[in-house]
Amino acid sequence: MTEPLLRADKLTKHFVTPRTGQTVRAVNGVSFEMFAGQTVGMVGESGSGKSTVGRMVVRLLKPTQGSVTFRGRDIAPLRDRAVRALRSDLQMVFQDPWSALNPRMRVKRIIQEPLLLHSKLSDSERSDRVEEIARSVRLNTDLLTRFPGELSGGQLQRVCIARAIATSPGLIVLDEPTSSLDLSVRAGILDLLQELREETGAAMLFISHDLGTVRLVSDHILVLYLGHIVESGPMAKVFDEPAHPYTQTLLSAHLPADPRTQLHRHLLEGEIPSPIDMPPGCPFSTRCPLVRDECRTALPPMVDIGDGAQRAACIRIREGSNQVPL
Amino acid sequence: MADLALDGAPKERSTIEKVWGKVVGISRRSPTSIIGFVIILFFGFLALLAPLLMPYDPIAANPNLILSGPSAAHWFGTDGNGMDVFSRVIFGSRFAFGIAIPVVIIALSIGIPIGLYSGYKGGNIDEAIMRVVDAFRVFPSIILALAVVAAAGPSLLNVVLVIGILDAPIFVRVVRAEVLALRSSSFVESGLIVGNPTWRILFVHLLPNAIQGAMAQTAVRAAWAVRISATLAFLGIGIQPPTPEWGAMIRQGAEFMVNGQWWVGIFPGVALILMVLGFNMFGDGLQDLLDPKRRSGGK
Questions:
Q1: Across the interface, do A85 and B186 touch by the CB < 8 Å criterion?
Q2: What CATH number is attached to the domain comprising B52?
Q3: A192-206, A253-267, B120-134, B274-288: which has the minimum mean pLDDT?
Q4: Number of separate domains in chain B
Q5: What is the mean pLDDT of each run of 10 residues along chain A (326 residues)?
Q6: In the predicted model, what is the mean pLDDT of chain B?
Q7: Which of A213, A304, B36, B120 is the most exposed place for a label (fewest CB within 10 A)?
């Protein structure tokens, strides 16, 4: 078995609120692996901690506990200076392209900044490389002399992607890269990501709350709920046979493209609990339709399903009573 | 560019046309700022061409002509040493600019980096810096300036340094406030993800987006510098007579005022008022132009 490119082990992030001093348990012991060239989709509601996990993976945030092993080295305890050297290999694309670009920098300077910081290319080599990258993200090279304010949302997100791939990183975290874009533009960005994955061979961690988008791009799925991974597995398996009650309800809430499809939905009641006031035991126990008394006492462990590629954290899986009636 | 013109895009305008368009826009929105600018320009012209414009040496005393009133030979009369007031008022504009410009430069170059760092770092560092800034603010700056200049010695250099340092907290506050608003926007985060060290985040990414408020303040702060340096000289702490500095001249003039020799103090006083007014009027327009929060639709 090959070494994973990235291994997150029991990643935990707790924030302390400045006024009240309460602890926000944003991420609680998240473990997963990513291999070179793989696209992993991470799904969850807002407040599930998915963006926090993404930011810890690229070390924009320092984990409270746990380790992030990237290319065989634990990057969690590194100091800022050491993390900076890793930036050429570890990149991220943000949700909102309108605010992710310095409004007073021309597009060309934005895209070449990582090259300036991480390579020893001459000015003319850098210019050539910027044009090459711009073409590879289907960005008209005329736009290189413009300021971000003069570009459309889709073009801006292409600039963000161009900047992220400029130094050919091994791993790119994409934090909801399409959710603030128009539907028509979204498809173009997803196509581009698919192409870049084949061209560059970079592994991608694709964070989204939109199951349809994740399904299009991912090989592997992680389902997050209240800072816990409740289910993980190959994309097709998780979508066809979701094991965890939360994944089942999440998939049943997703609208299919065909409006005539018969819907079998189980709509969850209530809101995701506050990460300040975590329920004891299973994080999903407050909303789970299959909840039992023992769910509320201890955190359920991840259980292998079938050949072990798919795993979920529910105590009812072993006895086969984990199906939510739809 | 030919294909652009076909699309109906506006024809490329020359730089002069653009600048002129801006000037017309400003003068329509705030005519006072144009008046202010003209006043500053006028004094700048006096300062630059002082040697050509002065009929007499500003520090040449003529013992035969002490305290003579305005006449054809001495338009503004002569002072208690028999020096030509007209020449001294003209030369005084050099001191006004010589103080105002370095003071603003010193205040900017201290205030901007501290404001950037304080706003970006936040937390305890920011808290500590802001308490120091508050301490400066609650203490009347004229008293502080008096004390420090009196202790350090009343040279021009000391006056400029002290006033410049005292003025820095204003720029710290303005820049910090803008950085605080920008810090949460993700272009700072994406600057970090690309691998920028802190100094590049501060000066390459934050500074160009946070400097407008500080720039808008510069003219008003220049007015303040002119005023406070003249005040120091008037109180006898700053620049010493017989240097042709307006504050020092007003001080001398005040002594003769009661005897009816009004011209010694009034003319440098009018010059001082005009220049401070000019900077303030221009500064007001500058703030309207640069500070989007002050930009109002109809006025």
A1: no
A2: 1.10.3720.10
A3: A253-267
A4: 1
A5: 87 89 90 93 90 93 93 91 92 92 93 93 93 93 92 93 94 92 89 90 92 89 94 92 90 75 74 84 88 88 85 87 79
A6: 86
A7: A304
Digit-coded pLDDT (tens) for B158-186: 889 999 999 999 999 999 999 998 988 88
Contacts of B282 (CB under 8 A, 6+ apart): B33, B36, B37, B39, B40, B219
Residue A258's alpha-carbon distances to A89, A252, A254, A255, B228, in angstroms, are: 41, 14, 12, 8, 76
Q: Which two tokens stand for residue B67?
A: 């305290």
Are A43 and A224 in contact, with CB atoms under 8 Å apart?
yes
- Tell whether B157 is covered by a domain: yes
Q: What is the pLDDT of residue B39?
A: 94
DSSP structure class, residue B78: B
Helix or strand holding residue A221 (H, E): strand A220-225
**Does B12 fall in a domain?**
no
> Is B194 in Cβ contact with A87 (below 8 Å)?
yes
Strands A39-43 and A203-208: parallel
B232 found inside a domain: yes
Listing DSSP states for A5-40 in one string gives SEEEEEEEEEEE-TTT--EEEEEEEEEEEE-TT-EE
ipTM above 0.90, yes or no: no
**Residue B110 domain-assigned?**
yes
Under DSSP, is residue A227 helix (H, G, I), strand (E, B) or coil?
coil
Closest chain B residue to the Cα of A112, Cα to Cα: B194
> What pLDDT score does B71 carry?
85
Mean pLDDT of B140-147: 85
State which residues form the domain around B126: 24-295
Q: Partners of A174 in the beta sheet?
A: A93, A206
Which residues of chain A neighbour B197 with C-beta distances below 8 Å? 84
Q: What is the pLDDT of residue B115?
A: 96
Would you say A150 and A104 are in contact if contact means Cβ atoms under 8 Å apart?
no
Residue of B186, B188, B199 to mutate, interface with A, max A Cβ within 10 Å: B186
SS3 B71: coil
Q: How far apart are CA A37 and CA A83, in angstroms?
A: 22
Kind of pairing, strands A6-16 and A73-74?
unpaired
The token duo for A295 is 């769910």
Q: What angle do CA A44, A46, A47 make, to 5 degrees?
A: 100
Do A161 and A101 touch, CB atoms closer than 8 A?
A: no
Is it true that the peptide bond before B242 is cis, omega within 30 degrees of 0?
A: yes
Residue pLDDT, tens place only, B33-90: 889 999 999 999 999 998 888 888 888 888 888 888 888 888 888 888 888 899 999 9
Nearest CB to A104 within list B185, B194, B208: B208
Task: Tell me how far apart the alpha carbons of residues B152 and B158 are, in angstroms, rounded to a whole number.
Answer: 7
pLDDT at B8 over 60: no
Instruction: For chain A, say whether B124 makes contact (Cβ under 8 Å).
Output: no
Q: Is B81 exposed, middle or buried (0-12, 13-18, 19+ CB in 10 A)?
A: middle
